[in-house]
Amino acid sequence: MRYNYRYRLKPTDELHERLAWTVDTCRQVYNHFLHRLNRVDDTSAYSEQSILPDLKGEWPDLQDVHSKVLQKVVQRLYDNLSTLKGRKANGYRVGELKWKSPQEYRSITYSQTGFELNNTSGRPVLSLSKIGDIPLVYHREVPDDASIKEVVVKQEPTGEWFAILGIETENDAPTKPENPEKCVGIDVGILTYAHDSDGTAVDGPDLSDERERLERAQRNLSRKDHGSNNYRKQQRVVARRHADLTRKRRDFLHKLSNYYAREYDLVAVEDLDVKGLMELPSNSRNRAGAAWGTFLRLLEYKCEREGTHFVAVDPRGTTKECSECGVSTDKPLWVREHSCPSCGFEADRDLNAAYNILSRGLDQVGVVHPDSVPAETALPVGTDSVPAKRVVETGSPVLSEAVRPRRVG
Description:
6-stranded mixed β-sheet
């Protein structure tokens, strides 16, 4: 299996300048080959990489950049071109590749060679060819049976440097159970971030303080003279406020997705068109802040890692449809309780949707098991009792106990 481990780098001033120089040189190489792409016919990534040795004779600075790093710059250009062609083939309106400014090119990639993770005098360092030994915050050990295939060094807008290690382990993902016993359907929302079919409602993180600090920093930035030293300093402050907001949100999403991936054998969710939801005329800020797309992506790869079935179902009608009898009933958004006029079944609006999501997920996988729905969740025909709603706040032991980091292998 392949994973990405992210570590904070702590370069000295000299190493910081060396990293920044290498990134900027790679940016200029990218722009150079983009210029050739627009003026030379029948070019490819392989043919362009083959001229790099000759280019070093005309451009002496390239001799101070590792060869694999330069090859990945060319590959990056043609990967971007391939992405544009793919989107155009799918009917999207696309433009053309543009030159990269210093703010738009922030990373370099070492592939296969040129890097090594060492422990020098009890202090872990990342050794990069043509750059040096960079201390890092080694908060998570790389498994003994893992091999590092790639290293991406990136500078965030805050000025911080990070290394993303692409590692590969010998262990395959656990086999998914043929007859999953612990199954859950999850309905995501704004007022309650996640409401599952077991009756657990998870509140989203409170980001009001982070948002207020971000807005205050943005107001201060608007008062600075554009391009001045104070303007650039305030830009870093705004970037740090954005980073605080992003890290708190992603920490919550990682913990929540870990909880469901490890506690259940099957997880059913809605296959949401997040981009389409963002384009709706109202409440788009709250939809963007909920980061449903990020949560679903994290949940999907964590389920794959843990050997859990991940099922994305059609979200159409999950709120309107009665989970007891299947009759659809229109209800405005402000109505938070589901009450079926046909069978009399009553439940929380989100809980009813979670039941429908779970039911569709089981049908999609083809699972027929008497224990697919837990006993306290199962609703025999003719009953109107539902499990009590259990609200879980951010940081609750219900989640934190389930998301302790585990080593791979």
